[in-house]
Amino acid sequence: MGGTTFLQLDLPPLLAALLAGGTCGLLGSLLVLRRESLVGDALAHAVLPGIVLGFALTGLRAGVPMLGGALLAALLAVAAIGLVRRAARLEAGAATGAVFTVFFAAGLFGLELSGARSVDLDLDCVLFGQLETLVWPAATGWGSLADPAALGSLPRQLGLLAGVALASAVAVALCWRPLKLLCFDPGYAAVLGLPARGLETGLALLVAAAAVAAFESVGSILVVALLVCPAAALRLLTDRFAPQVIGGAVLGAALAVLGYALAGPLPAALGSGVALNAAGVIGTLGGLAVALAALLTRGRRLAAAG
Amino acid sequence: MKEIAAPPLDVAGLTVAYGANLALEDVTWTAAPGLTAIVGPNGAGKSSLLRAVLGLIPARAGTIRLLGAPPAAMRGAVGWLPQRAMVDWDFPASALDVVAMAGTRRTRWFGPLPRAEREAARAALAEVGMADLADRQIGRLSGGQQQRVFLARALAQDARLVLMDEPFAAVDAATEAAIAAVLRRLAAEGRSVIAVHHDLSTVRDYFDAVLLLNRRVIAAGPMHAAFTAENVTAAYGGRLLRFGDAGDTAVLAEAV
Q1: What are the chain B neighbours of A187 within 8 Å (beta carbons)?
Q2: Between these two residues, A115 and B67, which has the higher pLDDT value?
Q3: Which residues contact B59 (CB under 8 A, 6 or more apart)?
Q4: Do B93 and A184 touch (CB under 8 A)?
Q5: Are residues A238 and B110, on separate chains, in Cβ contact within 8 Å?
Q6: Cα–Cα distance for residue pair A66/A214, rounded to 1 Å
Q7: If you measure CA to CA, which chain B residue comes closest to A245?
Q8: Which of A197, A278, B156, B244 is most enclosed, with most CB atoms within 10 A?
């Protein structure tokens, strides 16, 4: 496998998988600790009408209008969930489920109505992503990595993913202690006078941004897997906050990269003709990671008991 | 020289509702400085009163003043010890982590925990006899030890008023003694504690004043004046089996 082929065909999807996995793993840990894993799922779906709207208004499948629309939809969804909870006196899970399905359905409706579907924002791409289609034809060799013109022609999804990854990492690092308290005991955060509502909304917006940035490349189903699986696996392996959150990011990135490699490049390098859907392999690895963590924990408990 | 201090808590016309069910109805009460117990049967709105005062649940009507000021101005000045059942004990945090959370507002939000905060948290844990267990994950502590961790967190917050929801519920003798000692220390320092208390036989041992509550105020005031057989019977709406006016025993059946 030559360097140029790797740069052109494998580097962009690998980077996309790495960034999506890391970001989702980081934010997913916070969601799992808040016992709100479903919120990641919900927001990943609830942003669809915003994405369609952004697309319909600008006619562009560009990152910024779609991200703007998605964040707007996420804010509305968060507000609607709060409203339904209070007005209908439903528990959080039921209110979340009711709101996100309505939003997702509205998004699908809009997708048909706006004609976006006939371009290339179709249901398959929404659900399964298109990791393999991220290519970098401008790469001519390792030197391209230092060539600004060539770097400028990297798939634009990578820029969006990198921006959201950076924003998430910085926000989580800067709000580390309040976020920890918010995950553990939101009531006490409010009693202390911390801006609990603002932090909660900020976290929801980051999750929505991550979902949008990641969904184009890896698809909404994999976004959910990456939000939940690394965090859930770590949840079984550590009882410290920092390893849980940072470990979630590392495991998410590692699973995504390994899944991509196992799906195509690795079998190809070994001379096999097998080529699998990368999103599918990454999702499967996520599930396996949770199962492995459960087995390890069980083994440790049995050893401790016996 | 003593300045005339505002009452730790003052509520007027407080009404709290869950849907159509009134949890509290027109509660008007001024707490005196010192140690106060809130006593009443299940569903009397004891926890709701504390949670509404802290802004954790909305009040339908009424005004609340904490330490003489509107509640919003007093966030952070009031400590809180939640009911043990409300806590996620699987959370990846050590006893020290939980106690250090008391300083979340006064320290910067990122980076390592400042040394002064770490030492304050360790001192609070030591005061409740938990110095050796500071690094243990909270789920691996006994029920009484868990309660003491939260007591230490309330201490570390250095608050002038601490609200406690059933601090003595289902704890061992060592924890009960630790909580009683902490209450005495807080009172000696001129701080106030308002605690939901479920055990009628120990109310007089630990507290100076009482609020008897059953959705409305039944009686309130210093222990000897308010904690009488008549008032307790009225609050519980049931049969009073034995009430030792001279001794400290009150046994009740919550009959219909």
Answers
A1: 54, 56, 80, 82, 86
A2: B67
A3: B14, B15, B16, B52
A4: yes
A5: no
A6: 12
A7: B92
A8: A278
Q: Which residue of B has its CA nearest to A171?
A: B110
d(CA A131, CA A272): 20
CA distance B238 to B218: 14
Q: Are A160 and A247 in contact (CB under 8 A)?
A: no
Tell whether B94 is within 8 A of chain A (Cβ). yes
ipTM: 0.87
* Strand (E) or helix (H) holding B186: helix B173-188
Of B88, B101, B139, the CB nearest to A181: B101
- Quick check: B101 and A184 CB within 8 A? yes
Domains and CATH numbers, chain A: 3-305 (1.10.3470.10)
The encoded tokens of residue B16 equal 């709290």
Separation CA B49–CA B22 (nearest Å): 12
CA atoms of B207 and B225, how far apart (whole Å): 13
Mode of pairing for the β-strands spanning B250-253 and B239-243:
antiparallel
The count of other CB atoms within 10 Å of the CB of residue B244 is: 12
Instruction: Please list every residue in chain B whose beta carbon sits closer than 8 Å to the beta carbon of residue A240.
Output: 92-94
Query: Closest residue of A to B76, CA-based?
Result: A192
Work out the burial of residue B112: count CB atoms within 10 Å of its CB; fewer than 13 is exposed, 13-18 middle, 19 or more buried: exposed
Mutating which of B104, B108, B135 best tests the A interface, going by the most A Cβ atoms within 10 A? B104
Task: Categorise residue B70: left if φ over 0, alpha if ψ from -120 to 50, beta otherwise.
Answer: beta
Question: Taking CB atoms and an 8 Å cut-off, how many pairs form between chains A and B?
Answer: 81
Nearest CB partner across the interface for A178, out of B91, B104, B157: B104
Contact call for B92 and A191, based on CB within 8 A: no
The model scores a pTM over 0.90: no
Residue entry with tokens 């699987």: B90
Please check whether residue A185 is in contact with residue A241, taking contact to mean a CB–CB distance below 8 angstroms.
Answer: no
pLDDT digits (tens, 9 = 90+) for A13-27: 999 999 999 999 999
Q: What residues in A contact B84, CB-CB < 8 Å?
A: none
Residue A125 has pLDDT above 60, yes or no: yes
Using pLDDT thresholds of 50, 70 and 90, give the confidence band for residue A88: confident
Query: B215 with B24: CB under 8 angstroms?
Result: yes
Average of pLDDT values for B228-247?
70
Residue among B232, B233, B186, B178 at smallest CA distance from B208: B186
What is the three-state SS of B41-106?
A: CCCCCHHHHHHHHCCCCCCCEEEEEECCECHHHHCCCEEEECCHHHCCCCCCCEHHHHHHHHHCCC
Report the DSSP pairing between strands B209-214 and B216-222. antiparallel
- Chain B residue numbers with beta carbons less than 8 Å from the beta carbon of A235 are 92
